[in-house]
Design brief:
Length: 208
Amino acid sequence: MKLLLLEDDPILSETLEHFLTREGHKVDLALTMEEAEDLSYDNKYDLYLFDINLPEGSGLELLEALRHAEDQTPTIFITALTDMTSISEGFKLGAIDYIKKPFDPEELLIRLQAKFKNEILHCGDIEYDQEAQVLRKNGEIIDIGNVQYKIFTKLLCEQGNVVTKEVLYECLDHTSDTALRVAITKIKQRLNVEITNIRGKGYIIEKV
């Protein structure tokens, strides 16, 4: 996933960045609300990790402003507070979880895996958001046409398994071997992904 981390403690923020990057996530760091706001406008993220208590304000205020701007990015709050009013306000603004300081980075990873299990599938620099049903390349939503979208997502959801031609035929407007080969060739060229033809069986995207 691509994450935006807002945390004013440089040691904690760098520790979390290193840990999450090692686990395969891409992390942008912000030490201030202004930095986080600028990054949120310039990039598309799968998740926000916002500290609540900041020197210049509150992560709650930032999330409220983003929600008014129609930014519905899922958010987890990091907090040292035990103030249930603040925590309640976070959930009202659409936060999906919160985690209390101090915490083990492994706990954060467990929460991420629980919240986003099987929602984001990856193939190189392409990701498929199953909940939103959109494809992204380098964080930007891409449109490859309905037929190619259905074929690619079906292959991606079965990553590591052969999908038979008969199953993929159901994605086509006009069923034929030629139409299927042309569609898969276009997908490979457009997305720069590897799709292997298993002769006599079907097609597969290998697990990385």
